[in-house]
Amino acid sequence: MTPDQALKPAIAPVKVATRPRQTLLVLIGIDALCLSLAGIVGVWLRLAFDGQFHPSLYWRLWPLTGIFILGYAISKLYPGIAMSPVEELRRLILTTSLLYLLLGSSIFLFREVEIYSRGAFLLTWMFSLLFGVIGRFGLRVICAQQPWWGYPVVVLGAGKTGEMLIRNLRLQPSLGLKPVAVLDDDIRKHGTLLDVPVVGRLSMAPILAREMKIPYAIVAMPGVSRDRLLWLLERYGRSFPHLMLIPDLFGMSSLWVVAKDLGGVLGLETRQQLFLPGPRLLKGLLDKGLVIVIGILCLPIIGLIGLLIRLNSPGPVFYSQTRIGRSGRPFKAWKFRSMVADADRVLAQYLQDHPEYRASWEKDQKLRHDPRITPLGYFLRRTSLDELPQLWNVLRGEMSLVGPRPIIFDEVWRYGDKFSLYTQVLPGITGLWQVSGRNDVTYDERVNFDAYYVRNWSVWLDIYILIRTVRVVIVGDGAY
């Protein structure tokens, strides 16, 4: 019996249900569908404005969809495994826009600019971005829970880091990595780790990769010595086409880290862009531009909400509270009033009558059934319409559209050493924690979301959060 045959019974508990080829084909299919649909809608809208318009000219351009698919492949959007949604959004928008610019330039160079409509071209470009983002992210939400979605991965290390990795990959199934086995040299850890079988020592990695056709492995042993780590990477890098490493660098920026070859020495470059003048200026310009557009569009809604508040309950239309801004400066954050006029008295009486809810209030400053909130207030909070007046705070430079949630002075202690990160930036109307569960997350998780946002900020992260905010407002996830 060969060594491989002797080890085969040990890997029997490993079950691989994923179908990488199917995952790839579904991604290509949704991209082709979204691009085709964008062309149909763009040409149809142009036809609606001009009866003399000839849409038949555009059907011969449909094979160019293949060029876009090739461009996405070059940008590594296929299969897009282990790619953060923010990075996927960035690559999708930039690649699509670049290809449309090249297509437009080709039409101009070949003197066909008089044949094709600029309006149809721009509309198709716009809808390609819109449908592409909706299609890809919608597909990941729907398919991520399916057993065939993604790629199998082996975790090397059954310690706390391996456990944290498995938990995080399960919380974000859209990343497409599904742990199917864990290996560790400590036989006391053999058995299961979060229901994933720990099937043996690290030496079993090559047979797992070969027999189960597993292309991904992650080394989750941050405390291992340098020589041991290099040996692991060199040995198992031959078995797994994709071998990743979890470094012993928790708490640093993770979204935009770039590996650098410094004369044969590995360097990791990271920049906290929100601390730099240029990115801050860009963020400020985007804030002002979007707020002016949103404010003009929402003026009728703002007027209607103000009228309904006056009719619904006695008291002022607006409510302000002192919050902590950038550099620790206090400012008044404005909202539509969603509570009764004597809210503090009502809360005190409620907690006195229901002491079982006091611990929940003191822990997260939230109550699932808050007696202070008016019937209209519940609707405003669920849809986040109560925060529309904070557009004024953004115009005044006191807040941003996206950022950490503005806190009061009584909450400073909850941030601990992360409070210095909070004070480096403008607080936001929406933020990462609001689109990651809102009131369903704990206060400690909220602090970690805010710290992650500051450390990993980019324009693309803001765009991603704004897109997610639209969905959260419509669906009402985590709102109460």
Description:
With 480 residues, the protein is of the alpha/beta class. The chain folds into three domains: 3-16 and 150-248, Rossmann fold (3-Layer(aba) Sandwich); 20-143, no CATH class; 277-338 and 373-475, no CATH class. The protein is 50% helix and 12% strand. It has a six-stranded mixed sheet with strand order 3-4-2-1-5-6, sandwiched between helices. A two-stranded antiparallel ribbon has the order 7-8. Strands 9-10 form a two-stranded antiparallel sheet. The model has no long low-confidence stretch (mean pLDDT 85). It comes from Vasconcelosia minhoensis LEGE 07310. This is Undecaprenyl-phosphate galactose phosphotransferase WbaP. The chain crosses the membrane at residues 24-45, 57-79, 91-110, 116-139, 289-309.
Structure summary, number of beta strands: 12
Profile the largest sheet: 6 strands, mixed
- Kindly name the structural category: alpha/beta
> What is the CA-CA span between the terminal residues?
63 Å
Transmembrane segments: 24-45, 57-79, 91-110, 116-139, 289-309
Family: Belongs to the bacterial sugar transferase family.
Protein name: Undecaprenyl-phosphate galactose phosphotransferase WbaP
Subcellular location: Cell membrane; Membrane
